[in-house]
Amino acid sequence: MGECIFCKIAAGEIPAVKIYEDDSVLAFKDIDAQAPVHFLLIPKKHIGSILKLTKEDSSLVVHLMEVIKKVAEENGLNQDGFRIVVNTGENGGQTVPHLHFHILGGREMAWPPG
Ligand code: AMP
Ligand code: ZN
User: Fold this and answer.
1) Most buried one in 38, 61, 85, 103, CB count within 10 A?
2) CA dist., res. 28 & res. 9, Å (int)
3) Is 100 an active-site residue?
């Protein structure tokens, strides 16, 4: 996955403003924030999208959910709420082919999304 930008961020080869990191996941600030708070949470191992998850990733997926909760709480998003977005594939608007969870907050979100 030599050309994957999020693999490079996970490997420390491209800088990012990290807000949480452990052995298996990393959260960092989105470079083009769409809300006052906009983080991305990724698994460190390359998974192309949610469509590439397998049974072996079950505990990783649970861990990603736990980290979303932790990051939201630690950044004050648990008071007024927030949104999690996982763009998937072309129609979903996915531009980086490495699974990532957008965590957006600090303002009221519109519905339906664009
Ligand atoms: P998506 O369009 O859902 O695939 O989301 C990709 C996100 O990655 C976009 O919100 C970009 O702003 C963000 N992004 C791309 N490159 C970087 C980078 N080097 N550091 C932080 N965020 C990035
Ligand atoms: Zn990758």
Assistant:
1) 103
2) 9
3) yes
Domain for residue 24, yes or no? yes
C-alpha 67/C-alpha 57 separation (Å) is 15
Number of domains the chain is built from: 1
Distance from residue 113's CA to the centre of ligand 1 (Å): 18
Summarize pLDDT for 35-67 with one digit per residue, the tens.
Answer: 999 999 999 999 999 999 999 999 999 999 999
What CATH number is given to the structural domain containing 31?
3.30.428.10
From the candidates 46, 63, 100, 102, give the one annotated as an active-site residue. 100
The H-assigned helical ranges of 1-114 are: 5-10, 58-74, 77-80, 89-92
Nearest ligand, CA of residue 86?
1
Residue 1's pLDDT is what? 62
Per the structure, the complete domain to which residue 56 belongs is given by 5-105
In a domain, 114, yes or no: no
